[in-house]
Amino acid sequence: MSVTDTTGPTGAVDVVLVDDHHLFRTGVKASLDSGVRVVGEADDVESAVRVVHELQPPVVLLDVHLPGGDGGGGAEVIRRCTDLQATTRFLALSVSDAAEDVVAVIRAGARGYVTKAIDGPDLSDAVRRVAGNDAVFSPRLAGFVLDAFGAAAGDVATGDDELDRLSAREREVMRLIARGYTYREVATELFISVKTVETHVSAVLRKLQLSSRHELTRWAAARRLL
Fold first, then answer.
1. What is the pTM of this model?
2. How many Å apart are CA 108 and CA 103, to the nearest integer?
3. Which residue has the higher pLDDT, 27 or 181?
4. Closest alpha carbon to 221 in 123, 151, 117, 165
5. N or C: fewer beta carbons within 10 Å in the chain?
6. How confident is the model over 97-125, as a mean pLDDT?
7. For the modification 4-aspartylphosphate, which residues carry it (predicted)?
8. Which residues are paired to 112 by β-bridges?
9. Going by C-beta distance under 8 Å and a sequence separation of 6 or more, which residues neighbour residue 136?
10. Distance (Å, rounded) from C-alpha 146 to C-alpha 127?
């Protein structure tokens, strides 16, 4: 476990990194861009709970499988930090893409789940999005969450009029973003630039009167568009 000052540079997101492998933590720190600053580290459940409570960072990056505690791993850390839910958000970072692992940490309160195959720029972007209260998932993992939780109560289809507001390209972008793809992954999938993706996402949110990617995922799930 290690702790440093939490006063980061302007615009940077402070993060606590939790993983029981020192070499992996070192690699993550080296891959993050200057907009993300690791201010604390932990390698088991008990030290993670202690450091997160001490630093209360905007984001905690944590593995789902951790030693210590009652054996609940990352999900246990999140549950034991529920008193910080107003200020601290959790993003799971794991080698596992098993449905049970994804669902367990989301049920506990995580805002997203990405696999360790993610690269540094995309991980940095994911941290910023979670800090902004967005939900973030590696491609295809979002389906596990939607299958487990279903559409939220009250989210019912209202016909095709809302979907008709979107162009064909905006619908393509909307579906990929709602599934958890990053802007870069959408751009690669559709052979367009990242800037074009950003423009389409802004248009989609405006036309559907939504404020975030998280709301977009719920909107799409309610209409079985994923």
1. 0.65
2. 9
3. 27
4. 151
5. N
6. 88
7. 63
8. 91, 136
9. 91, 111, 112, 113, 114, 126, 129, 130, 180, 213
10. 21
| CA distances for 198 relative to 41, 80, 153, 173, 174, angstroms | 33, 36, 29, 10, 11
Contact partners, residue 118, CB within 8 Å, separation at least 6 = 93, 126, 138
What total of structural domains would you count in the chain?
2
Tokens of 26: 């070192």
Q: What single-letter amino acid sits at 44?
A: D
Q: Which among 89, 123, 148 is the end of a domain?
A: 148
CATH code for the domain of 119: 3.40.50.2300
Same domain, 61 and 164: no
Which residue would you say has higher pLDDT here, 86 or 6?
Answer: 86
Q: Where residue 26 falls among pLDDT bands split at 50, 70, 90?
A: very high
Q: Which residue has the tokens 């459940």?
A: 45
- Domain that residue 219 falls in: 159-223
Per-residue tokens: 140? 């295809």
164 and 143 in a common domain: no
Q: Does the pLDDT value for residue 184 go beyond 80?
A: yes
Neighbours of 106 (CB within 10 A): 23
Q: Is position 124 within any domain?
A: yes
| Vertex 174: Cα angle to 172 and 180 (nearest 5) | 110
Residue 76 is encoded by which pair of tokens? 């246990």
